[in-house]
Design brief:
The complex is a heterodimer of chains A (about 210) and B (about 120). With about 210 residues, chain A is an alpha+beta fold. Chain A is built from eight helices and six strands, in the order αααββββββααααα. The longest helix of chain A has 15 residues. Chain B is of the alpha+beta class and about 120 residues long. Classes of the chains: A alpha+beta (about 210), B alpha+beta (about 120). Chains A and B meet through strand 1, strand 5 and helix 4 of A and strand 2, strand 4 and strand 5 of B.
Chain lengths: ~210, ~120
């Protein structure tokens, strides 16, 4: 009874999800899923370079097998340039988010075509202390501590019983507004005088 | 696919040697703990990757070599500035048991299972 009920449950659950695909469609899906879109060739013949992630990965509309993410490419020669890197989802092997530095190879015949070197990216993440540390470092590089300040404020609000967390007023703020944020943190008692002075001096040194 | 236990992260230092120079030296003469069966397969602006593809005898017998069954061990060394003119080298990837033991003996620090 249990066995047949189990089988029936599987059949019903499968039917609710569209049932079995046809054999032809299955092979088409497999073909699209594992299509490297020329990346292996770029990795073999390309020029090594550094890229900086300028956004977040998202699925390509109308293409369920690919992701896209803006990358700022720093070629060995010439000025940096930005591309919208489209890559097969199946090749993604490690974290890649805003602010992270990513090793890539550039197609020598078409600088708009690049391929991420995932083994090197994994080593870079290990060097940063793991995925969380690498992602947070990247966010800090991009948003200049505004995200951290917002998180600290949100936690303080929770501790104080305030309902809503205060959102960051701006991302990538200038030095003046960052010093103002620092003042708020000090007033809120989240940092002491010594930390305040050290951070403030760092910001002033950026001018 | 290598097992989770074959995954590792380790740190080495190259005092007084800038990252570009240390990377070049490691590529020209791989470290003693790396067996010659590991071949260089890739390099980036600050790293080098070696690989050893190995098919166990049992896999060859079971699969007859028709469907692969090879384990691919990949190790990547990343070279960064240590802040005082030298290099901090992070080794990450997978290795066979003998190579893991050799790395553990030679490294400044070693993390079995790698960093997630």
């Amino acid at each position: 009874m249990g066995f047949f009920k189990g089988l029936n449950d599987i059949r019903q659950a499968s039917a609710e999800r569209g049932g079995m695909p046809s054999i032809g469609d299955s092979f088409r899906d497999i073909g699209k899923l594992f299509d490297d879109r020329g990346e292996r060739e770029i990795l073999k013949t390309g020029v090594a370079a550094k890229a900086v992630v300028r956004g977040f990965a998202e699925q390509v509309p109308g293409d369920r097998f690919a992701m896209r993410i803006p990358l700022e490419i720093h070629p060995p020669q010439g000025d940096p340039y930005t591309i919208n890197y489209v890559f097969p989802s199946v090749r993604m092997q490690a974290a890649m988010s805003a602010g992270m530095e990513v090793p890539v190879k550039i197609d020598p015949n078409d600088p708009q075509r690049v391929a991420v070197q995932w083994d090197a990216q994994k080593a870079s993440i290990a060097a940063a202390g793991g995925s969380n540390a690498a992602v947070l470092h990247g966010l800090d590089q991009t948003y200049g501590g505004a995200a951290n300040a917002a998180m600290e404020q949100a936690m303080k609000n929770l501790r104080d019983g305030t309902q809503a967390a205060t959102p960051p007023t701006t991302f990538a703020p200038d030095v003046q507004s960052r010093i103002a944020q620092l003042d708020e943190l000090k007033k809120a008692g989240l940092i002491d005088e010594k930390q305040y002075q050290a951070k403030k001096q760092k910001l002033i040194d950026q001018l | 696919m290598p097992s989770i236990t074959s995954t590792l992260s380790a740190n080495f230092s190259a005092p007084g040697e800038p990252p570009a120079s240390a990377l070049r030296r490691w590529r020209e003469t791989p470290p003693d703990w790396l067996p010659s069966r590991y071949r260089e397969i890739d390099d980036s602006y600050n790293s080098v990757t070696w690989e050893w593809r190995h098919t166990q005898l049992a896999m060859k017998l079971v699969l007859g070599g028709l469907f692969g069954g090879a384990t691919s061990y990949r190790l990547t060394s990343l070279f960064e500035d240590d802040g005082s003119g030298g290099s901090l080298v992070t080794l990450n990837g997978q290795a066979d048991a003998d190579t893991r033991a050799a790395i553990r003996a030679a490294a400044d620090s070693y993390f079995e299972g790698g960093l997630v």
